[in-house]
Amino acid sequence: MKKSPFQFIFAETNAVLLEHSITLSQLEQINWQQVSFLVLDATNLSAAYAALVQLRQQALPQVYLRPIVFVAAKGSREGWQWQAADAVIEKDTDHAIDWSVWSEQLEGINRWIDTLPVIAGAVDGHLPVRLLRLLASRQIDAAPLASADICTGFIYPLLQPLFTKQDMGAIQMLAFLEEQRLLSPTLFERAHFCPHCDSAFLNFKETCIECGSQDLDVVELVHHFKCAFTADISRFKRGGDSLVCPKCDKQLRHIGVDYDKPSVVNKCRVCQHVSQDANVMAKCFSCGCSTETKFLDLRRVNRYQLTSVGLNAAFYGLQTYFTNILEEELQLVSLREFELFVSIETARIARYGKSQSALAIVRLIGLDKIHFELGSKSKQVFSELAGIFKAVLRDTDVVTAYNESVFAILMTETSKDKADLALNRLNKAVERLFSENLDRTLDMQIQAVNVEAELQVKQTLEQFLNN
Ligand SMILES: [Zn+2]
Ligand SMILES: [Zn+2]
Ligand SMILES: [Zn+2]
C-alpha cells in the first residue's frame, strides 16, 4: 500500500497543507499502514504542541510512535517545543513542499513500529515502555536541554509529551530506568535543585553567620603595621578620606608603608558582626523556601542511551523481562543490600570461625536473544527458568540481579564444593529445559567462591564477567 503523509487537524484555524487529513476522533479507525507521518500546522506553536501531546498520549504504538512533523513559516525557532516533533518543515510561500523527501527520511521509524510483536488488543499503558519505544524507534539518545520555560530547568523535548501532570517527571523516570540498567548515562550537567519542589531556579546569597540576615556589606580589612591593629575600614574612617587607627590614634597615610588591606570581610548591617565566613543560602524562585546549600539536591543531569537490555524491553515490554519474573519467584535484593548481606556474613564467619558460606555467580549467556527469537512466548520460558532457580536455591539464599543475565547468590552455611554441586544441578536443569522443549541450548557460565574476609562482591562480579 502506498503511504502518504496525513495532516492532523486540531483546530478550525489550521491551514490546509495536505489532501489527506485526520482528526482526533478518527485516530482509531484509520489504517495506519497508509500513513507515512503526521503533519501539524505549527503557525501557533503552543497549540501545535498541545496537539502533539494528544497524539503521544494515545495508547496504540501505531499512533503514539508515528513520526510527527511541524510545518511553520520561516522565522525564529525559539522554544523547546519545536524539538518535541520529529522534524520541522519550513513553509516557503514560493515553493511547494516536497513531502516525499520527508517520507523517505522518516520511514525507518514506521519500519520499527511494524516489527513490534503484535499482541491482539494490547495497548501500551506502561510509561517506561512507551519511553523506551520512542527512543528505540528513532534510534536516538534522550538528550536534555536547559530551558527557563520549565521550573526543573532541564527538559527532554522529545520525551516530555509522554508525561502527564500525574506522572513522575521525566528526569526521575530516566533515573529509574538507569537503575534498571535499561539506559546508560553520560553526564550533561550537574545542577542544584530545591529539595521541596525540584525547581532549578535558585537565588544563592550569603547570610550573616550570627543573625541570618542577608543584609551584608563586603568591606575591606585594614591592618595598621605599627600597632598591628586590624579591623574593617569603617572603624578607621574619620571624615573625608582620612584614616585614623582607633587603637593608637595615629594617622594612616600610605598604603604599603603605614598599613595594608589583607582581605575583604562580610559586615552585617543588622547586627554589625564582621566575619570572613558567611552561610550560603538558596532561595527557591518557585516555592519561596530558603535552604542551606548543603541540603540542596545536587543531581547529575544526563544524556541517556538505550542499553541492549533496554532495547529488548522496548520490543517486548517489561512484563516479559526475566528479572521481573524471577522477582516474583524469589525475593531479589538490590546489589547494595546484597553487598551488605555479604559483609555481615563475612564478619559472622570471621568471628565464630565455625561455618562456611559461598558466593555463587550465574550468567545466562544470550538470554537477551531469547527475547528476539521467542517474542511473547519468552514469558513462559522465563517463568520456567525462574521455577528452576526457585527449586535449586533455598529460602535462606540471598539473590541479586547484577544485570538482566547475571545473578549473584549468597549461599549461607554452604561450602564452595556444595555450592558447585548446586550450580551444576541448576545448569543441568536449564540444559534440559532448553533441549527438551525448545530444541536449542542456553549456555551458562557458573562460578562459586568462598565467602572470606577480603571478598569484594563487585570486583568478583567484574572479574567473572571479564573471563
Ligand atoms: Zn547579623
Ligand atoms: Zn594603630
Ligand atoms: Zn522550591
UniProtKB/TrEMBL annotation:
Database matches in Pfam families: GGDEF, TackOD1
Gene3D superfamilies: 3.30.70.270
One of the record's GO molecular function terms: diguanylate cyclase activity
All copies of domain GGDEF, residue ranges: 355-467
EC number of this enzyme: 2.7.7.65
InterPro entries per record: GGDEF_dom, Rev_trsase/Diguanyl_cyclase, TackOD1
Superkingdom, natural source: Bacteria
Keywords of this entry: Nucleotidyltransferase, Transferase
Protein name: Diguanylate cyclase
Lineage of source species: Bacteria, Pseudomonadati, Pseudomonadota, Gammaproteobacteria, Chromatiales
